[in-house]
């Protein structure tokens, strides 16, 4: 094992050193050592990629589709994305200039922030929310302004947005929205987004909208802010959740052409181009697999109802998720409010892996997140284990 030259030990990006690693991954790694644990920690669908999508990937391999592709992605895929968004968002994006295929939605978020923010720019982020946004904003030199939404059903209100914009002043450049939301599962109705859009338009803010869970809404059709403010929205999505393609790492950005030159640069400097075989699969998914998410969604709806009913009986409180596949549950009062201590104790004593709520920003303390993307039998075992844990206390 090589030992570093002592004179090099001080090397390291100081700004990056101040940013903590992913608390979700760190906690998941920690409790993974518990024998027999059932983890509901990560947003990992338990379904297989649809067979026809897998066959498209295989055909790509057999055709030796193994060379560098266009940095922005294959034109056929960008056209398929454009067609899909025109149908679902009623916005026409030029596949040549207004769509970038990315290495998952995570890279889409990173490239967008690196390409659009300047040091000191403030980004307003309703919380609780996926903690990746905090670190990526900071990596881009921006400043995170967390907006605690726990008092308003975990949704941002136009009044609160206006208040935070005025407090941030001229440095307020963007608002980051994730809907349906990780970790709460909450989403926005057309009426709610219309009210938010009026404030965003008034203050000429950029809205970065992560809609990766848009195909997994249960009780209402997904509506996009891009349908109301196409000139002010960076729309981010992908196929990880809709088609269970998390390992394919296939995401995309859609936005006005004028906003994308630096985003495209950041993307190309980080990854050059996205894997061709993943793109072959994505073309099939967005061409012949638009109905594939329906079966997944019905299974998730059933699992949501099962988990909400049984967790409520055990004393947990939660906003019923509108979409995605997470429950953000308030810890029963008798267990205290230390969500890290609670999650560690449940892992060790009940063999159930949950994510402490505090990692998701303001308004998250005293909660835990669980993913019900796991198989039905595992969810049943989790409820049995939690029932024993609660009864023993």
Layout of strands and helices, then pairs:
Blueprint: H1 14-17, H2 23-31, E1 38-39, H3 51-62, H4 75-88, E2 99-103, H5 104-116, E3 122-127, H6 132-139, E4 143-148, H7 158-168, E5 172-178, H8 190-202, E6 206-210, E7 233-238, E8 250-254, H9 261-271, H10 276-288, H11 292-313, E9 317-318, E10 326-330, H12 339-350, E11 352-353, E12 355-356, E13 367-371, H13 376-392
Parallel strand pairs: 1-11, 3-4, 3-5, 5-6, 6-7
Antiparallel strand pairs: 2-8, 7-8, 9-10, 10-13, 12-13
InterPro entries: Aminotransferase_I/II_large, AspAT/PAT-like, NHTrfase_class1_PyrdxlP-BS, PyrdxlP-dep_Trfase, PyrdxlP-dep_Trfase_major, PyrdxlP-dep_Trfase_small
Family: Belongs to the class-I pyridoxal-phosphate-dependent aminotransferase family.
EC number: 2.6.1.-
Describe the structure.
The chain has 393 residues and is an alpha/beta fold. The protein folds into 2 domains: 14-48 and 292-392, Aspartate Aminotransferase, domain 1, CATH 3.90.1150; 51-288, Type I PLP-dependent aspartate aminotransferase-like (Major domain) (Aspartate Aminotransferase, domain 2, 3-Layer(aba) Sandwich), CATH 3.40.640.10. Helices cover 40% and strands 15% of the residues. It contains 13 helices and 13 strands. It has helices spanning 14-17, 23-31, 51-62, 75-88, 104-116, 132-139, 158-168, 190-202, 261-271, 276-288, 292-313, 339-350, 376-392, and strands at 38-39, 99-103, 122-127, 143-148, 172-178, 206-210, 233-238, 250-254, 317-318, 326-330, 352-353, 355-356, 367-371. The strands form 3 sheets. The chain has a 7-stranded mixed sheet, with helices on both faces. A 4-stranded antiparallel sheet has the order 9-10-13-12. Strands 1-11 form a two-stranded parallel sheet. α8 links the parallel β5 (172-178) and β6. α5 runs parallel beside α6. The longest helix has 22 residues, at 292-313. It is globular and about 60 Å long. The mean pLDDT is 96.
């Amino acid at each position: 094992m090589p030992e570093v030259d002592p004179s090099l030990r001080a090397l390291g990006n100081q700004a990056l050193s101040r940013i903590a690693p992913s608390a979700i991954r760190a906690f998941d790694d920690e409790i993974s050592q518990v024998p027999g644990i059932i983890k509901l920690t990560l947003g990992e669908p338990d379904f297989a990629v649809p067979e026809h999508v897998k066959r498209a990937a295989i055909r790509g391999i057999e055709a030796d589709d193994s060379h560098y592709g266009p940095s922005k992605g294959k034109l056929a895929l960008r056209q398929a994305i454009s067609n899909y968004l025109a149908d679902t968002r009623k916005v026409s994006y030029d596949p040549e200039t207004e769509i970038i295929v990315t290495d998952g939605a995570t890279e889409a978020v990173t490239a967008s922030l690196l390409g659009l923010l300047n040091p000191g720019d403030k980004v307003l982020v309703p919380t609780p929310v996926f903690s990746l946004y905090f670190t990526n904003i900071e990596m881009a030199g921006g400043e995170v302004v967390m907006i605690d939404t726990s008092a308003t059903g975990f949704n941002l209100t136009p009044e609160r947005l206006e208040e935070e914009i005025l407090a941030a002043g001229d440095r307020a450049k963007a608002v980051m929205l994730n809907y349906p939301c990780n970790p709460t599962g909450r989403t926005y109705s057309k009426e709610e987004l219309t009210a938010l859009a009026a404030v965003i338009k008034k203050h000429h803010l950029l809205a970065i909208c992560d809609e990766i869970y848009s195909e997994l809404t249960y009780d209402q059709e997904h509506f996009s802010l891009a349908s109301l403010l196409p000139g002010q929205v960076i729309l981010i999505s992908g196929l990880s959740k809709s088609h269970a393609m998390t390992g394919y790492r296939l995401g995309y950005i859609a936005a006005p052409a004028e906003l994308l030159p630096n985003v495209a640069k950041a993307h190309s400097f980080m990854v050059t181009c996205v894997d061709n075989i993943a793109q072959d699969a994505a073309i099939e998914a967005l061409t012949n697999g638009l109905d594939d998410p329906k079966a997944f969604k019905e299974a998730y709806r059933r699992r949501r109802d099962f988990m909400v009913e049984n967790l409520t009986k055990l004393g947990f409180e939660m906003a019923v998720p509108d979409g995605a596949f997470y429950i953000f549950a308030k810890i029963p009062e008798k267990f205290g409010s230390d969500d890290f201590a609670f999650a560690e104790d449940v892992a060790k004593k009940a063999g159930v892996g949950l994510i402490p709520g505090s990692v998701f920003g303001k308004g998250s303390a005293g909660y835990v997140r669980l993913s019900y993307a796991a198989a039905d039998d595992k969810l049943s075992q989790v409820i049995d284990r939690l029932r024993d844990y609660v009864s023993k206390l």
